Amino acid sequence: MTSQLILDKVSAIFSEQLPFHRHLGLKVVRYDTEGVEVAIDMADHLIGNVHQQILHGGVTATLLDVTGGLTAFAGVVAREVDPGIELLQQKLPKLGTIDLRVDYLRPGRGQRFIATGTIIRTGNKVAVCRMELHNEEGSHIAFGTGTYLVG
Amino acid sequence: MTSQLILDKVSAIFSEQLPFHRHLGLKVVRYDTEGVEVAIDMADHLIGNVHQQILHGGVTATLLDVTGGLTAFAGVVAREVDPGIELLQQKLPKLGTIDLRVDYLRPGRGQRFIATGTIIRTGNKVAVCRMELHNEEGSHIAFGTGTYLVG
Amino acid sequence: MTSQLILDKVSAIFSEQLPFHRHLGLKVVRYDTEGVEVAIDMADHLIGNVHQQILHGGVTATLLDVTGGLTAFAGVVAREVDPGIELLQQKLPKLGTIDLRVDYLRPGRGQRFIATGTIIRTGNKVAVCRMELHNEEGSHIAFGTGTYLVG
Amino acid sequence: MTSQLILDKVSAIFSEQLPFHRHLGLKVVRYDTEGVEVAIDMADHLIGNVHQQILHGGVTATLLDVTGGLTAFAGVVAREVDPGIELLQQKLPKLGTIDLRVDYLRPGRGQRFIATGTIIRTGNKVAVCRMELHNEEGSHIAFGTGTYLVG
């Protein structure tokens, strides 16, 4: 089994099976060994400020946390010489956020929000990732830093 | 106008008018000069892990962030000698999260989750709050620390 | 070997052998299964603001980080049924800070600063601790939250 | 008075007058509108681990915090149409760290450590900066994120 097949399965689980992701409309739009992208289209139910029509900060935190978790798990898969389907059964359920910091840079205005992530510390127990959220025009909405339990 | 009337109005806005709060089912169940409580009842759409039926980490982050913001705003109201309705029009729209840290302590299992907050640094520009999330049995799910722009 | 003997040895290493601790004048003044206290006496070389004679924020961060590490290691010792001297050789060198958050509450004025810590999440790989810094009059200077690799 | 003259004065104060910086040997080696660099040469008194000869995590936190503060203040100067010497008397004393997060990526080994910073959120009250620490070979030791009060 290739790494990409494993990432495709995780991507499908995160986009289609997780109830909270479906409730929000969050989608994993890219997930390969080179990068992760998680996106959400602006919708009435995501608004946190009626006057200003901006994204709720909890949606921002959710997008960054999910993206960090996927980034950390991609690191787990990349560390395996011969990755197999058992990673989904043994490692994915152990994946968990230890802590998350979100820096809100500007109000979440836009039609579509895209989160991306990078691993900054990797190990067989803990990974640390940095994440960013931009809107469809490339305006930078938020930064995130997350520490994840990976094994 | 008393401080409590202002807090009651904010509480109503947060529970009934904010689209994202209604979409999740989040309610401000207490809001006075002594404390804040924000609660959510467990529901299928809040689940972040199908096998384990636990609360999504993004819901935890949302509850803590909302609670921190309310805690910071209660501090703004408490600083006013003669608080008036203009606080809602002038100060509430300026309330914003600068940064948020969430420490996830244990899986979010339970029937109901309650977030509470305390101010740890107060000023006329910035407030820092600490928040906690417990389930209905008092099990401690998460800690939060947030820095808020208040003026 | 009792847990207390191990903690005493760690305390001696931290107070007397670590060059940076000696350079600052930092001392572990209490270290048992009930708690940790790390203290420093105000001195000219610790000042970060010439006009106001206040403690440099880097000293605050140092005190909180050291206290968090000691708190996490006390948790490691407490988890052992029959703790032995090998903990010092095998576990202590593996102790490391993954991330640290410091919340500065008020200027570091005082004659003596005392840091204390509590474990909020414990495991066989990672521990999360909360720390506080007070001056000799009990004025609360700073909060800290640290995530530590413990195994 | 030009912005650069103001930054030069701040640089001199930070390198030569602040007691804690002199005690450690910390120097501002670059400070202009394009960037900040704070450096320290490895020395026995900065060691936090006798066996491994690595930089104490408190030194890392100090370097990142100082660099973030300087980065935030450069932002203050850059916002002024006609910056004058009064910035040093009125704005510099108000500069303070609200919170700091440090992510320790790898052990602090090296001969010289250099911290750099970037503003990610700017305003007339609060600035948020990201900082990095590298050794002389370009190895990435730590990341930092700090929120600063600037007015």
Automatic annotation (TrEMBL), chains A, B, C, D:
Protein's UniProt keywords contain Signal: no
Reactions listed under catalytic activity: a fatty acyl-CoA + H2O = a fatty acid + CoA + H(+); a medium-chain fatty acyl-CoA + H2O = a medium-chain fatty acid + CoA + H(+); a long-chain fatty acyl-CoA + H2O = a long-chain fatty acid + CoA + H(+)
Keywords: Hydrolase
Enzyme class: hydrolase
Enzyme nomenclature, EC number: 3.1.2.20
Residue ranges the record marks as coiled coil: none
Name of protein: Medium/long-chain acyl-CoA thioesterase YigI
Domain Thioesterase span(s) in chain numbering: 53-139
